[in-house]
Amino acid sequence: WLWYLSADFQFFVIAVVLAPLYKANRFVYMGVVSAFAFACLVLFGYYEVYDLAKKYYYVTYTRGTPYFMGLLMATLMNESTIRRKLVPSFAFQVVGNIVAFCGFIGVVNLMWYNGYLAFKNELPGEHGNRALNASIEAIFCIFMSVTTLLWGSGYGGIIFRFFSHAAFRVPSKLTFSAYIIHLVIIYLIFANRSYIIEHLDLLSYHSSFAGCVFWVMMSAVFVNVFLEAPIGKLNTLLTRGGKKRS
Q1: Which of 130, 141, 196, 197 is the most exposed place for a label (fewest CB within 10 A)?
Q2: At residue 32, does pLDDT exceed 90?
Q3: CA–CA separation, 133 vs 117, rounded Å?
């Protein structure tokens, strides 16, 4: 279940290679990063849900678009001129937060519905399914970009204040562990149950995924306590030791 660490490290290497280009010409850098994001999006839409493990979930390029969109947003947030002209606009704040929040809810339900159709073998035609896959990721990245630009600039409004509440501190620290472990939990719950899922209605299917979210977060506690936190502390000790020796 370390598949995402491999993908994340590959993206990190690409980002480091592109870093000198950012200093040389930021517009060229943004163009290259955008090309990477679009290429990954096309590859993501090329494969069908049926190729879940080998061609749809594990491979690096299906995870590339959100990462490269993140690089673009970091660049935009670093451009004070863009932030000064765009972000303080009241209309942009209100519309951006409302549309992005509603969009996230819609995209999550669309992803669930796509999986629901896959389990019931009722997916649209080959081209329709590929277009749906690519559209889901593209829409998610757009909404996430708007949210990042607004919240990162301090204009998240009431939604930002709600999710900044102390009650969300613990779950926020579990997100990376949850992302690493979630596929294992999903496989454990749904393995050998396709004959049951085929007969579930949409509401029951959503409820089953709510159960998956609960067990993923519970498992993430274990991963965080026994793996992520100790490794992080060990890395800190090794880094401090290296600085003292130097």
Answers
A1: 196
A2: yes
A3: 12
pLDDT tens track for 130-169? 667 677 777 887 888 878 777 777 777 777 788 888 888 8
Q: What is the mean pLDDT of residues 198-207?
A: 67
198 pLDDT higher than 80: no
How far apart are the C-alpha atoms of 10 and 227, rounded to whole Å? 21
Contact 45, 134 (CB under 8 A): yes
Cα distance between residue 68 and residue 30, in whole Å = 10
What percentage of the chain carries pLDDT values higher than 90? 6
Residues 210 and 56: their CA atoms lie apart, in Å, by: 22
Q: The dihedral of CA 96, 111, 162, 75: what is its sign?
A: negative
The residue count of the chain comes to 246
| Residue that is written with structure tokens 């004959």 in the block | 195
